[in-house]
Structures are given as C-alpha cells and as structure tokens.
C-alpha cells in the first residue's frame, strides 16, 4: 500500500474558554465534524479551567479537503489488494501538531473518539513533549485480530447512500438508522439530537470523498501497538460495553498496551456520545486531566 507524500495541514478549530488555560484538543471520528462535540460538552470542560480546541480533521468540515487526491479504491482494498492512499493517520497526527504550533500552544491534553482516538494515540506517541495526557474514547489499536465490527454495521457504513443534497430526506433517514444501530442500549435513542446534528453538519460542509480517504488512511495505518506501547503520557481509555463498531475488546487492548493506562468501561454505551452521557464522560475527563496536571 503506497502513501502519497503529504505535508501536514493546519486544521480548523473552535476555541472555548481562556487561551491562557491548559489546552484540550478534541478530535472527532470518521467522517464526523468538530460539532459532534457539543458546545454544552465543551463548555463543561472550559468552565473547569481549560481551553478547548474543537477540531475538524483534514478532509472534513471546515479543514482542508484534499479533493485533488481523488477517491481511493475501497473495493480493491476490501479484496486485500494494495492501493495508493493520500495519507495515513500519522499525517493526521502531524496536522494536530502543526495546528497547535500555529495557535501558539506548546502542549495539550488530547482526546479523540473512534478514528480520532487512533489519531490521538499516534499524537501522544509521536509528540510526547506536546502531550499532557491522552484519552481515547470508543477507539482501537487497529489490531486486525481484534473482534470485527458487526457485519450489518459495516454494511451500513460502507454501502451506497442517497445524495444528501438531491435526496436529503432519504439520506437523513438512512443516517438516522445507522446512528440508531450503533447507539447505547441502556438509553432511549435521541433522534431529535442526531437529526439536528446531521442537518447542521450537512449545511456546514460535506465531503463524501474525504470520508473515503479517511477510511483508506485507517487501513493504511494498520496496527498501532508497537507505537503506542511507547506512550508515556497519563492515559485514560473510555469504551462502551455494547459498542458494535469497535467491540469492547478494542478498548481493553488499548488499556493493556499503553503503560499505566486506566480503563473505564461504561455499561450499555454503544459507539456514540449522546447528550445523556456527556456529564459522566466530562467528569471522567476532568478527573483524569487534574490528576495528570499534578504529576
């Protein structure tokens, strides 16, 4: 699998809180925008004395979209064939480092969800001097021997989708079905929240090809274990017991691989962070950050 030479790009972010406070970078997951971290959640952290950078990954949201790189051949990839990819998650971690440099921030707590959690792990491994602490939420090591995602979830994720602009209602219905499938099993599904998030994301920015390049980047990056076992930053792993996309074994393996990592499994949580879980997750993060700052 060949990778195009790719320089880091400076990412778009929203800032919450006072810039003089310790920084927290929040990285979204595959194809998700920074707004998947709600303002309410960001303000919980900012009000506790932190400066929040809510980031759009490359190829998504208001960050640079690498349209000239074209679309990767994911069908060939699924057949085990080698393909050319525009970048890997390692380049995405370098994007975060450049963004911090441009913002005048020397070090940060870094938090990522799903694919963003993998980027966060690589950031902590590649830039230990810039990492105050790490938290990976509903993420993975990329180990191919881990239990796979549920087959129907992968079919929904990778299958054909209606054009969101030409057939918005059909697209929204399909997306809501996906979010319902990966939702937490112990909570009512918040259809209104996700419908609003999807519509806002579509109006803000849309890049289907960017999501495909992010999928290819995950595949090209492969197994992170040799890199993340070198992480020295205080690490918290948060994972749901009922995650159908990254089964709970993925979170457990992160906790077992990174020295000294603490694992918090939330019973019933799926592959999502709905409003009903925000207070609990924010409390876990704040306890983690404050403990890290005392070391």
UniProtKB/TrEMBL annotation:
The keyword Oxidoreductase appears for this protein: yes
Keywords in alphabetical order: Oxidoreductase, Peroxidase
What broad class of enzyme is this?
A: oxidoreductase
TM annotation in the entry:
none
Q: Which residues form the AB hydrolase-1 domain?
A: 22-272
Pfam short name (any one): Abhydrolase_1
Please name the GO terms that the record assigns under molecular function. Answer: peroxidase activity; triacylglycerol lipase activity
**One Gene Ontology biological process:** glycerolipid catabolic process
Q: Which InterPro entries match?
A: AB_hydrolase, AB_hydrolase_1, AB_hydrolase_fold
* UniProt superkingdom: Bacteria
Enzyme Commission code: 1.11.1.-
Keyword Oxidoreductase annotated = yes
What protein name applies here?
Non-haem bromoperoxidase BPO-A1
Recorded source organism is Cedecea lapagei
